Amino acid sequence: MKSYKDLSKEELKSEIEILEKRYNEFKAQNLKLDMTRGKPCAEQLDLSMDMLDIPAVELRKAADGTDCFNYGVLDGIPEAKALFAQMLEVSTDEIMVGGNSSLNLMYDTIARAMSLGILGSTPWSKLNSVKFLCPSPGYDRHFAICELFGIEMITIDMKQDGPDMDTVEKLVSEDDSIKGIWCVPKYSNPDGITYTDEVVDRFSNLKPKAKDFRIFWDNAYCVHHLTENPDKLKNILKACKDAGNDNMVYIFSSTSKVSFPGAGVAVMATSTENIKGIKKSLTIQTIGHDKINQLRHAKYFKNLDGINSHMKKHADILKPKFNTVLEIFEGELGGKDIASWNKPNGGYFVSLNTMDNCAKEVAKLASEAGVALTKAGATFPYGNDPRDRNLRIAPTMPPIEELKKAIEVLVICVQLVSANKLLNQ
Ligand code: PMP
């Protein structure tokens, strides 16, 4: 297909006419399709159904004799720690098992730093200025935590190998009000990018001016592969230790999209010194998390092989959905120079970049045809995409026929908005 940029005004006009006709045909169908959030579909949730059939008597005693029905155990039963230590490639004493949500762990970690500081540092809330670096496009709920606590967000460009490390290195070494950075290092939300070894090395060798600077390494998609040849992510905790920066990273993950969102198990991995610091206040916050669910997960998955073979079943369901999106993108947008997108090897999203200053208009047009997309701009701090071009596509939830329709509407909208823009230039 010819690039839109090479079309004459007349050619653009006739293209718009065809697109408008197609758009109106979809509009007449009164569609109501929701593509807003990256939730698993019902079929994926069914995969873990058997876990709930484990008899209660088998969920009572942990390996060390702990009665899981009773109070106690702040940081997780041994079986759960062992499972997550394998998944995150750390040792069991670097693991803290939490409740059902890793986002909750991240929120608590920031809230704790705000009110109590980190390992004896001044509580962030007592400082005049606290800033976070936000590689973007990124995860809107990370940004929402910063916004809630009044932490100033600095947008960092995402490149194909990870965040723009030249800028990250420079800023953290110069400004001691920069206290953290949000990272989704594997199959990133939304770009689907896995940070290269070089990027991980540069992270572990950061020389932050603030001694309480922390990398928030949200490894939400560590086992969520879509191909037989999964991306590999270098171990950040080990790299930090090798660089003498043992305390610089907090790793987060959960089984939300392995077993059940809202009823999975969340986990944090960090240095033993950080864990000791966290436990001082955690022990006031709770007597312990849900050990029955921890044991249920440990018994069901057994080990990392168990998790990996379960994740293959997820991939079997998700792959055709991702392929549907990519095929329609390629077929309708390929070669037209009006959009670009990533082909992720895992994770939950396809990230679509339109021409500059088109994303909001595309989302509006799609919504008028009954297709709800994640709000344009949501993938940037303060909801402000400076180029107004990024759209996060979440293909997992809708049944494939609905997904196909929604993406067809979307690509028509992208073409319509682009053609009109070029016509009026
Ligand atoms: N981190 C990222 C990058 C996510 O995409 C999501 C879910 N969309 C979460 C965290 C939420 O994780 P949890 O369910 O463990 O709170």
UniProtKB/TrEMBL annotation:
<dbReference type="InterPro" id="IPR015424">
    <property type="entry name" value="PyrdxlP-dep_Trfase"/>
</dbReference>
<protein>
    <submittedName>
        <fullName>Putative transcriptional regulator, GntR family</fullName>
    </submittedName>
</protein>
<dbReference type="InterPro" id="IPR015421">
    <property type="entry name" value="PyrdxlP-dep_Trfase_major"/>
</dbReference>
<dbReference type="GO" id="GO:0004069">
    <property type="term" value="F:L-aspartate:2-oxoglutarate aminotransferase activity"/>
</dbReference>
<dbReference type="InterPro" id="IPR024551">
    <property type="entry name" value="AspAT_Ic"/>
</dbReference>
<dbReference type="InterPro" id="IPR015422">
    <property type="entry name" value="PyrdxlP-dep_Trfase_small"/>
</dbReference>
<dbReference type="Pfam" id="PF12897">
    <property type="entry name" value="Asp_aminotransf"/>
</dbReference>
